[in-house]
Amino acid sequence: MLAFDRDMDVDSPQKHSHIAPRKHDHLWLSDGNVVLETDSLLFKVHKSILSMQSTVFKAMFELSDRDDDDDDDTKSDDDEMKGGSARYEGLPLVRLDGDRGSDVVHLLCAAYERQYYYRDNDATPLEVITALLTLSTKYDFKHIRRDVILQISRHYPMTMAAYEAIDNDKAPMFGEAREDCHYPLLKAVFAAKVDALLPILYYACADYTIDTMIDWWDTLDPACLKALLKGKDMITFATGSLITKLPEDVHGGSIACPNIPSCIGSARFSGFAKFLQLTDLKHFEGSKVVKICIRNACPMCTKVLADRINERREKIWNDIPSFFGFRDWGELWRKLAEDCKV
Ligand SMILES: [Zn+2]
User: Fold this and answer.
1) How far is the CA of 308 from the centre of ligand 1 (A)?
2) How confident is the model at residue 63 (pLDDT cuts 50, 70, 90)?
3) Residues 191, 222: contact at Cβ < 8 Å?
4) Cβ(54)–Cβ(34) under 8 Å?
5) pTM here?
6) For residues 248 and 227, which has the higher predicted lDDT (pLDDT)?
């Protein structure tokens, strides 16, 4: 039953074509002193509890209280919505425009129940993580926001070794496979303006086909999509250059073979096509690349080439922030530390 028996102090469902929001089963607290309205749900909660955690709710309630004081002399039974003076069953009614009721449930549960959200619990569903990040930012719940950012940052480290150690597509993360988390997290992190986590998420998302990107075309913010596509293009160019420079390294005279006769003249290259269009740097680990691409080089020259590939791989990793519009990892570390300060 979606419609319900409600005391129509202000709003009438007949005014709207959509179904009227219903009271939430649990977040309708008997001694609550304010009603929050979303598209689908109503919550009776406490101004004091939310004000302690959220500067935005605090300001909204203060404004609503002030409007109520101003209206005291003029209020009538059929008082219409004006400013903060709307009421529901005698209590102040605050509309949360643009928020989904199901998302607000997560925010309020996290605000009320200590055990609801725990930043070390990586089984927390993805939709809870994204809702908490987005709404804690919108309403300035600093502690919740900090904890979610810390938790996400643990799954997206900023050093190549740490990132590659945990970057298993099928590994469970937030109730999904890791590979299914990158795009929803990118969307939430972009909306929440957590710059520190953007390049690493762009990097994770860049390693997908154009079909995946098209699936997200209408969901991602255009600026986010633009940065992703531009950065993907730059990584693809960098990794392509890394591979195609190999013959020049060998035949251009920058490698001196210690053997007589030198292996340089007989060294052959193949398999470059396997690496074209790849953006994930794990594919470009030196020893793997030389195994696929180089034939007839002596072990010492092969090792020199593998080391050179790894140096370039490291350089590309260091350039990732700049591909997506940021300066370097150091700047992002500082931003992350700032985000995690409350
Ligand atoms: Zn050699």
Assistant:
1) 14
2) confident
3) no
4) no
5) 0.87
6) 227
Lowest-confidence pick of 176-190, 199-213, 250-264: 250-264
Q: What is the dihedral of CA 240, 241, 247, 253, to 10 degrees?
A: -170
Distance 291 CA to ligand 1 centre (A): 15
Measured in angstroms, how far is the CA atom of residue 288 from the centroid of ligand 1? Answer: 18
Burial 55-87 (b: 16+ CB within 10 A, else e): eebbebbeebeebeeeeeeeeeeeeeeeebbbb
> How confident is the model over 154-171, as a mean pLDDT?
97
DSSP 141: B
Q: Which residues of 92-113 are buried (b: 16+ CB within 10 A; e: fewer)?
A: bbbbbeebbbebbbbbbbbbbe
Query: Which percentage of the chain shows pLDDT scores above 70?
Result: 90
Q: How far is the CA of 312 from the centre of ligand 1 (A)?
A: 20
